[in-house]
Amino acid sequence: MRLATSLSALRSAVDSVLRTSINRHPAVKAAVLRLINGWRRWQSGVAAAKSGNVHTGHSAQEVAERFVLPSCKRYVVFLLAGSDTVSGGVISILSIAQESKKLLEGQDARVLVCTALGDAPLRQYTMFDNEAELFPFEEFLRVVPAGSSVLVQVAECEIRHMILSRFDAFRCANVTWSINILLQNIKLIPSSADVERMKRLGPVTATVSHAAYANQGTAARLGCQVHFLSTLVCPEAYERTTFRDKEKLIVVSPDAHPLKYAMLQLVAERLPDHEVVEIRNMTYQQYKETILRAKFSFTFGEGLDNYFVETVFSGGIGMAFYNDQFFTPDYRELPGVFSKPGENLNVITGFMAAVDNAETYDKIAATQRSLLAKKYVRAEYLENIRTFYERFFPPTDCSTLRSAHPSTIATSVSK
After folding, report:
1. Distance from C-alpha of 283 to C-alpha of 226, rounded to nearest angstrom
2. Beta-carbon-side half-sphere exposure of residue 46 (alpha carbons within 13 Å)
3. Cα separation, 399 vs 389, whole angstroms
């Protein structure tokens, strides 16, 4: 086993101890997260300034000329951090923004992606391929026509930083606000108290990424209506290889987990000819190239996340511990999904050893792909976006937004 495995295991052990200790104290955890996010934003701002990846000069004029029309009184704004990083959450939000633009700009609305108030005025994200142009939200506020209706969409983990801590700036703008929470991780769900505070600005809704929590329970916890979007992760978007072209490579997510260190140690003993790579400090393209080569991936995070799904769509075998927060029950018996986090780790390494032949491996990979391909369908995802706007931000002329896939009905949950 290469040195990378030992270093990855050591880092995971330290992460697990620190995060377990912090998680026991919510106030400490919140303070640590604020410090980390502030430090990342500061670092990103310095790096962006050095590289020229910032807006300077006539930002408000640029926004006005390119995106704000005196005759347009409806805007959809996606707020993102001014940090030039790559994450599944940012990629997902930019996908929603791109499809929203295609859908709405033929109607009577404009769609913008903005860096949050107080963040570095980043021009674009450079760690993955995307077409998004970012503008400072403060510049948008200076030029948005009075009396406009503005729908702000923001990730669940950024509610306090991007909305609640900037409450006065929102209230001073002469526009009608509505807010949509992009709930991508149920573990990060905002409190109902925070949602009630946001309702002082205007109506609040939430869109969710996983079917497992697109339900009445989530609506009740938030105190607002919930709409299922899913994510744009579909099999046709990925290059796929079979066992014959895979390398002796096991990819693991960077998430902390109490069993991570023990599992990596056992992998080193049972599969000494395999390299273990933890996904860190990669561009998105480098990550995709890595999972295309890898035989296996194991996610220690959500479970049903991109480390799992994208590996499967790349022809590999994804592995995770089952949980009912992100997985629906039909994943429970899927090969590679292990029912209990405390399950004997020998079962997991035994599974990898047992499928390490072309016939068994390709059969398991096909089984996983078959189930996931039914769950992640591009046409359904686009239809879910369309029905969200039709219900919560409809055209002013009462026309119906064009359907991406008429036969598909999105799941919506009312409080």
Report:
1. 32
2. 5
3. 12
CA gap 88, 238 in Å, rounded:
15
Residue 276 has phi, psi (to 5 degrees) of -110, 130
Neighbours of 123 (CB within 10 A): 20
**pLDDT for position 315:** 98
- Which one is predicted more confidently, 356 or 128? 356
Residue 87 is which amino acid? S
What size, in residues, is the chain? Answer: 415
Nearest to 288 by CA among 62, 86, 51: 86
Segment 182-225, tens digit of pLDDT: 999 999 999 999 999 999 999 999 999 999 999 999 999 999 99
Q: What are 34's two structure tokens?
A: 């604020």
**Contact yes or no for 291/316 (Cβ under 8 A):** yes
Maximum distance among all Cα pairs of the chain, rounded to whole angstroms: 67
Q: What is the rounded distance in angstroms from the CA atom of residue 175 to the CA atom of residue 2? A: 58
What pLDDT, on the 0 to 100 scale, is given for residue 339?
85
Find all residues with CB under 8 Å of 39, minimum gap 6, and list them: none
Greater pLDDT, 143 or 28: 143
Decide if pLDDT at 64 tops 70.
no
Cα-Cα-Cα-Cα torsion 187, 83, 110, 176, nearest 10 degrees, comes to: 60
- Residue burial 181-210, b: 16+ Cβ < 10 Å; e: rest: bbbbbbeebbeeebbebbeebbbbbbbbbb
- Specify the pLDDT at position 86: 77
Question: What is each CA distance from 296 to 1, 220, 315, 319, in whole angstroms?
Answer: 16, 38, 9, 7
Residues 383 and 323: beta-carbon distance below 8 Å? no
Residue of 190, 175, 80, 66 whose CA lies nearest to 125: 80
> 263 Cβ partners below 8 Å, 6+ apart?
298, 345, 348, 349
Q: What are phi and psi of 380, to 5 degrees?
A: -70, -40
- Contact by Cβ (8 Å): 388, 227: yes
Joined tokens for residue 17: 């101890």
294-299 sheet: strands from edge to edge: 275-278, 247-252, 294-299, 317-321, 337-338
297-336 confidence digits (pLDDT tens): 999 999 999 999 999 999 999 999 999 999 999 999 999 9
